[in-house]
Amino acid sequence: MSEPEFSARGVRIDRWPRSLTRAGEVRIEDGRLALLTSYGSEIDSAPVSKVRAGRPWFARADEAVATVNGTRYRLTLHGDDHGGGGGEAAEESGRFLAALRRAAGRR
Question: Structurally, how many domains does the chain consist of?
Answer without folding.
Answer: 1
